[in-house]
Amino acid sequence: MASSKATSAARSGPSGLTRVYLWAYNTLNFLAWGSCLAYTASLLPPHVLTNTLPKVFHLTFNPLLLATQSLALLEVVHSVVGIVRAPFMTTAMQVASRILLVWGIMAPFGGEIIGGRNTQLGDYAYLGCVTAWGITEVIRYGFFSITLSGNSVPSWWTWLRYNTFYILYPIGISSECMLIYQALGPAGEINPLFRYALIAILAIYVPGSYILYTHMIAQRRKVLRGKKRAD
């Protein structure tokens, strides 16, 4: 029964070269995020024991920047051209928020609010982002990769896909907001307008994140209701 459902889903989804491309894209992201997450986790015990936690940022930021977040820009392209069914606005908001954090906060202020001489709040916020983003994306890209391969997704993976979001999203958002807040001071030293821009972003970010959170919860419940009816 599960096999026939997977086949039916495969037929209703993308086909031909589009399907191959999406499978390759999702598999590449799954491996990239998985490697980044595993590498970060492997660094934590020795650096926590030696009180050198800030070094984790310098060792993991380039993989995060190059192998993961930059690839996320293609998510918006996929939505625009219609090769995936993800809503454009939801996709754009998610990608834009992470690009802001990686390119607008972590890159210019690495070594200052994160990865400094001593462990500070920004180091924990950075790890919160990597953890929340990493686990979420490993589950999500792995789910799509298995689906596009024509195989049936294990029930436990499906459960993770639709339930870990409730915990990981708040962790990710709170960590992102903390990093933006920590960046206000150094941003003002570069240019007062930069600081004002970050304040404006924070003013929009918090309520916007809540709206997006409730919207995505509604989407997940709708999907789960559809799955129950299909069963």
From TrEMBL:
Q: Name one Pfam family in it.
A: PTPLA
Q: Which InterPro entries match?
A: Tyr_Pase-like_PTPLA
Q: In which pathway does it act?
A: Lipid metabolism; fatty acid biosynthesis
Q: Which keywords does UniProt give here? A: Endoplasmic reticulum, Fatty acid biosynthesis, Fatty acid metabolism, Lipid biosynthesis, Lipid metabolism, Lyase, Membrane, Transmembrane, Transmembrane helix
Q: Which domain of life is it from?
A: Eukaryota
Where mainly found? endoplasmic reticulum
Q: What does this protein do?
A: Catalyzes the third of the four reactions of the long-chain fatty acids elongation cycle. This endoplasmic reticulum-bound enzymatic process, allows the addition of two carbons to the chain of long- and very long-chain fatty acids/VLCFAs per cycle. This enzyme catalyzes the dehydration of the 3-hydroxyacyl-CoA intermediate into trans-2,3-enoyl-CoA, within each cycle of fatty acid elongation. Thereby, it participates to the production of VLCFAs of different chain lengths that are involved in multiple biological processes as precursors of membrane lipids and lipid mediators.
* Protein name (record): Very-long-chain (3R)-3-hydroxyacyl-CoA dehydratase
**Organism expressing this protein natively:** Penicillium bovifimosum
What is the organism lineage in this UniProt record? Eukaryota, Fungi, Dikarya, Ascomycota, Pezizomycotina
